[in-house]
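(Fold this chain)
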Amino acid sequence: MGRLPFFAGNWKMNKTVGEALDLVKGLKAAISGVIGVEGEVEVAVAPPFTALYAVRKEIEGSSIFLAAQNLYWEEKGAFTGEISPLMLKEVGCHYVIIGHSERRQFFGETDETVNRRIKAALAQGLKVIFCIGETLKEREGGKTFSVIERQMEGGLKGLDDREMGNMVIAYEPVWAIGTGKTATPEQAEEVHRFIRGKIEKLYSRGVSEEIRIQYGGSVTPENIKGLMNQPNIDGALMGGASLKAESFSKIVRFKEL
């Protein structure tokens, strides 16, 4: 059996609790009854922290998983404004997004702090969506692969094969996030293939063949099929398209497009 396609919606700093509930109710309705949606694809939503508990209650009994957008690496303590892995686990999170380019760009995330967060999440039984990607300047400077390699080596430092079984990698070219620009399926596939090859070098062929690599960066119902036709693209981490049940569900149901 091949890798299970995985679609996750990162709602970023959007949606009040009421709006989040409306969205997830609409999403549930839009993907329920789809033949084989359970077992053929995996779906997760990452609301803001304030809506996590309410959304978890709403998706109980559905095939939708709950994800958080970030965490801190300590279990508890004097870290005003932070959220710990234990808190996320208790509220019902299955996944957590770590290393998103916006966290790196606006909040000082480094490969080292990303690595600490990943280890803390895995230690508490959370699965990780680990984000990597190059800026436009880095791509135009021919540094795409060296940037990806550095982020992977730093972020995955000290992880073993077993821990990698609870990892998903999301390749998000920074120049394509929220800009309307999308890497062509061929551009995305080239980097995804490089990432899978790097995983094989760092771990093993088995780990590299099993790990899922999502694409993120202005994913839409119009471009998802071309992306999913690529052999090394295993789903999408969506921003804007995940804020409406209609576009989110169309992407999840890409085989019908």
User: Anything to note?
Assistant: The chain has one domain: 6-256. The radius of gyration is 17 Å. The chain has 13 helices and eight strands.
